[in-house]
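Below is how a single chain appears once it has passed through the pipeline. First comes the sequence as given, then the structure the pipeline wrote out for it. We keep one example in the README because the format questions we get most often are answered faster by looking than by reading.
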Amino acid sequence: MMKTKDHLTHLQLLQLPMMKMTKYPQSVKINLLEKENPLTNAMKEHNTYMQESDKKMLAEMKEQAEKDRELRKEELGAFKDSMALLASARKSWVPSRIPWHFLQVPLQEEQNQ
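Resulting structure:
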């Protein structure tokens, strides 16, 4: 496959004038440029790996967010239930029952007199 100058990297374009001085035909020169530049290939592989890893990480983050959302819904439901129980307990509390600590103060005052 013949590559045009549009498909070459900047480094490969800089190397073209040097390649013109050699005896190879143009198609071989471009293939040689690709083989001579392992950094470009390594960077392509690295970028591909990073994109795949980003996609995996994003999928894991979405999955974790879904789990957290469900957990928060359950916690909110439990909180509402406990608040409803507390409210019903407050309503059923009879005000005629006076807690013991309220009675201690008047008893002590009577004993002092």
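The chain has a mean pLDDT of 74.

See the next section for the split statistics.
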